[in-house]
């Protein structure tokens, strides 16, 4: 893939950081000796669950809106998303004084639906398929003229997401490896670009649910493959790789580690119990990948960064709460 021109560069990520400074939080980096002992490495957790709207998505949404023309701002913005990007675009639009139209699957998390409503966006519900989301978004766009902001396959969004890794590298110092969750690939692609620009010796490892393993299959095949009926509790990672994100990932990421839902739940529990970090399942994939690395690809890495992508958990449906009740029963 080395000869394929990429849609986004490190310079774009660096420029995005300057544009969104003051709009987004510079989230903290947390360490935990107990988790270091479990992993056999020094772990540096970039806490994007403490970002505005509780997820890294606010970075890309804020950057995309900062690049709109006056005419586009007047017409408002539109997206389709199952949750975190929906919240991010709704909040960023509210902060910028723009209208926002959000198409969401009818089975979206109630906590994410409520948040989008509270940010003042207009929600259109649809069937939980990509085709239904795209069809509904097209209808809303035809009616309103709003500018569509893709959840991940957008150059400005990718550049904005990459600012999380940019910050992590400046906060934690040199890293042997960086582990990032992968769904559509916006965060992962942006992270790859940040690493290539600031620390090219750092290995980028992607973490993915085994039930939504299109990235792992794509890496094995050497070409972008579509999702195959994905099923995982990590609902933020159900989407397939994008046309813009895949070339970046295939050029710069080293490999994909897949983890089961049970391993994700175990990592969520460990993050809460050991580090007091409450994250959503998608974010916990990175720790799950390190603790359950089947090929020991991270053996020998002494300093490892992990991006905790979000913390929008439905507290009434914590996956390990039912597990605990079963054990007590």
Structure report:
This protein has two domains: 10-56 and 155-322, Rossmann fold (3-Layer(aba) Sandwich); 58-148, Rossmann fold, CATH 3.40.50. The chain has helices spanning 10-20, 33-39, 57-66, 70-75, 84-96, 110-118, 130-144, 155-161, 163-172, 186-198, 214-221, 245-252, 261-275, 281-291, 319-328, and strands at 29-30, 42-47, 77-80, 100-105, 122-126, 147-148, 177-181, 203-209, 255-259, 303-308. Helix 3 packs across helix 5 and helix 13 crosses helix 14 (281-291). It has 329 residues and is α/β, with parallel strands linked by helices. The strands form two sheets. A six-stranded mixed β-sheet has the order 1-2-10-7-8-9, sandwiched between helices. It has a four-stranded parallel β-sheet with strand order 5-4-3-6, sandwiched between helices. It starts with 9 loop residues before the first helix and ends with a helix.
Number of helices: 15
Number of domains: 2
| H/E element sequence | HEHEHHEHEHEHEHHEHEHHEHHEH
SS content category: alpha/beta
Classify the fold: give the CATH topology of the largest domain.
Rossmann fold
CATH structural class of the largest domain: Alpha Beta
Which range best describes the helical content: under 10%, 10-25%, 25-40%, 40-55%, 55-70% or over 70%? 40-55%
* C-alpha geometry: globular
Low-pLDDT segments, ≥5 res: 324-329
Give keywords.
329 residues, Rossmann fold, four-stranded parallel beta sheet, 15 helices, 47% helix, 15% strand
């Amino acid at each position: 893939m080395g000869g394929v021109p990429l849609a986004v560069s490190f310079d774009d990520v660096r420029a995005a950081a300057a544009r969104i400074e003051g709009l987004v939080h510079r989230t903290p980096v947390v360490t935990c000796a107990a988790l270091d002992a479990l992993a056999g490495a020094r772990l540096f957790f970039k806490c994007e669950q403490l970002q505005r709207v509780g997820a890294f998505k606010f970075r890309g949404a804020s950057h995309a809106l900062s690049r709109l023309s006056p005419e586009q701002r007047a017409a408002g913005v539109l997206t389709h998303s199952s949750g975190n990007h929906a919240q991010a675009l709704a909040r960023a639009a509210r902060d910028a004084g723009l209208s926002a139209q959000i198409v969401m699957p009818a089975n979206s998390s109630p906590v994410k639906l409520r948040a989008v409503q509270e940010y003042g966006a207009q929600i259109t519900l649809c069937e939980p398929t990509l085709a239904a989301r795209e069809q509904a978004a097209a209808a809303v766009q035809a009616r309103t003229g709003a500018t569509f902001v893709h959840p991940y396959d957008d150059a400005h969004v990718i550049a904005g997401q990459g600012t999380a890794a940019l910050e992590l590298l400046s906060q934690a110092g040199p890293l042997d490896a960086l582990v990032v969750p992968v769904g559509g690939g916006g965060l992962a692609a942006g992270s790859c670009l940040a690493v290539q620009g600031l620390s090219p010796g750092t290995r980028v490892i992607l973490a993915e649910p085994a039930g939504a393993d299109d990235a792992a299959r794509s890496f094995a095949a050497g070409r972008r493959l579509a999702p195959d009926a994905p099923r995982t509790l990590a609902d933020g990672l159900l989407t397939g790789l994008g046309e813009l994100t895949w070339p970046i990932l295939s050029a710069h990421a080293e490999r994909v580690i897949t983890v089961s839902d049970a391993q994700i739940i175990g990592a969520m529990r460990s993050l809460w119990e050991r580090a007091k970090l409450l994250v959503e399942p998608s974010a916990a994939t990175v720790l799950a990948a390190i603790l359950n690395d089947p090929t020991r690809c991270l053996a020998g890495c002494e300093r490892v960064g992990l991006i905790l992508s979000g913390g929008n958990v439905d507290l009434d449906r914590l996956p390990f709460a039912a597990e605990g009740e079963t054990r007590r029963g």
